[in-house]
Amino acid sequence: MSINQPNAPFVGTIEKSPKISLIGTLAMLVEAPGDFDLVQQGRIWALADAVSTWPNVQEAVIGVTNVMLVFEQPPADIGMLSASIVELWHRVPGRKADGKLIEIPVVYGGELGFDLPAVASRAGLSERDVIRIHSEGEYTVCAVASSPGFGYLHGLDPRIYMPRKSVPSLNMRAGSVTIGGMQTGVAVLTSPNGWNAIGWASVAMFDPNSEQPSLMLPGDRVRFRIDRIEL
Amino acid sequence: MIEILTSPAFNTIQDLGRHGARRFGVSTSGAMDPVALAAGNALLGNDDNAAGIEIQTFPFRLRFSADTAFALTGADHDATLAGSAVRPWWCTRAKAGDILAITAPRRGARVYMTFGGGIDVPLVLGSRSTHMRGGFGGLEGRTLQAGDVVPIGSSSHGSDGRCDFGVAPPDVAIAGTAPADDRVLRIRVMRAGEYELFSEAMQATFWSTRWKISAQSDRGGYRLTGGRLTLDAPVEMRSHGVVAGVVQVPPAGEPIIQMSDANTAGGYPKMAAVIQADLWRLGQAAPGSVIAFSEVSYQDAVAAMAPVNDYLAKLRATADLYRAL
Fold first, then answer.
1. Based on the structure, what is the number of domains in chain B?
2. Closest residue on chain B to A34 (Cα)
3. CATH code for the part of the protein at A101-230
4. Is B23 in Cβ contact with A60 (below 8 Å)?
């Protein structure tokens, strides 16, 4: 797993500031400098936690090493606001992936894991090895975006990396456990999907009638457990 | 209650949107022309955010089950109630059993129908807007169809309150927003994060092109044709939050403007963002219409909202005055 282990910033170097840009008058994007790793992601989580309590901030929308602030009203002084964010970025301690542990039982392979043979073949591994590697990993929810309750999971073993499809599968079932590049996830809607389905989980990922509608939240950890294997 | 008699496709219940749930991956939804919806509500004494019907395919017909005050705003259209013409941007009272019929607009894309008391479907994550991809909000999370019965809330103004008055539509009342003679809709934008990554020639193309809103455009986003914006070197963007109005440029070079039902996340270079004061006008631009972008500063973008807010405030004051007579 050393490949994905973040390095601590070198002591004594001057760190770059985040890139700050506006998307119209009601949204501001703050992008962390440097490579994607869990240290920068943890600092984004901490920044989002702090900034979302500021007046006029409707919400802080976490992305992959970035956060978009949405405002109730156009901020009066963009320069001052940006400076406050930069100052906070350099000061706030990063958050660890200290959220809850979510265990997701998976039926690997079978009718709903129809891309498992292709993933195994690309990896030069048996289907059982792909399942073992996928189910032994521990994943971190970096962000929830794109579909209601869809978690961007970090931590895929590079041995079972599988590029997204150029032509999406039509009507992939909600609950499909998928690999898309170096990410894995659980599809929350039945829809066209360019990721590769290796199994299926019956866990409810999103409940719009709940005050906290998303099962996964940034900073949560996810484990996939073998419920059944259908080869 | 009302009963839907004819509704071809993609007509939905919308309010001003589901805000604050992007962080759960939930797009905002909401009226594509929020000014028209708010105006329709103000005419009836509703809260600006009360839910109405966004009608974008025609003919649309419904029957009233009870005496109900209503208003039709948005695109320039013809409508009849029990066979008689209904004035747009007007507070009208229907009798139980009356049938309302709306035909395709002459100009504009979306007609809004609001009801005294608002549409009374449950709030989901703080909004009544239909989230079609997620299948929640509105009426069972889907588009309206013939046979649907839609509940209407009770109006705080009772059933005998004064009706029969109207207002000027915003493109008449707000100076400078009517389309220019050349049939090109001018849309004001601010530069966004990756503007500087495009060459000067590409930036010039962005400003000078008369972009056509393609047929592959809907509440999710408008695909533009008429030019290509390419980068000298491709950039790898990490997935990040976006809001309605953002103009993104996918690798093929034809820009996409994200609209009300847009995904919460994006990852294409961002050229610009449509200012809030022009989003409602863009929401009325039908596929096939032509737009051009002009640049404004942050200060000008903020200031541009004042006439819109003034229009709605005056409209509400006028409507409240009439009702009190």
1. 2
2. B238
3. 2.40.100.10
4. yes
pLDDT tens sequence across A9-37: 445 556 789 999 999 999 999 999 999 99
Instruction: Find residues 244-283 of chain B whose CB sits inside 8 Å of chain A.
Output: 245-246, 263-265, 270, 273-276
Residue window 299-318, chain B: list those with CB within 8 Å of chain A: 301-302, 305
d(CA B62, CA B82): 11
Largest alpha-carbon pair distance within chain A?
60
B156, B17: one domain: yes
Min distance B127 CA to chain A CA atoms (Å): 11
* pLDDT at site A6: 44
Identify the CATH class of A2-91: alpha beta
Extents of the domains making up chain A: 2-91, 101-230
pLDDT in tens, A107-123: 999 999 999 999 999 99
Which residue, of B135, B167, B199, is where some domain finishes? B167
State the best of A19, A20, A22, A23 to mutate against chain B, taking most chain B CBs within 10 Å.
A23
Same domain, B149 and B189: no
B238–A213 C-beta distance less than 8 A? no
CB < 8 Å to B240, chain A: 29, 31, 63-64, 66, 68
Q: In what order do the strands lie in the sheet with A57-62?
A: A19-22, A27-31, A66-71, A57-62
The mean pLDDT of A194-206, rounded to a whole number, is 95
- Burial of A61 from C-beta contacts in 10 A (0-12 / 13-18 / 19+): buried
Mean pLDDT of chain A: 92
**CATH code, domain carrying B215:** 2.40.100.10
This prediction's pTM: 0.93
Interface of A with B in 156-195 (CB under 8 A): 188-189, 191
Strand boundaries in chain A, DSSP class E? 19-22, 27-31, 57-62, 66-71, 101-109, 139-144, 151-154, 169-172, 176-180, 183-186, 191-193, 196-200, 221-230
Task: Say whether both B143 and B80 belong to one domain.
Answer: yes
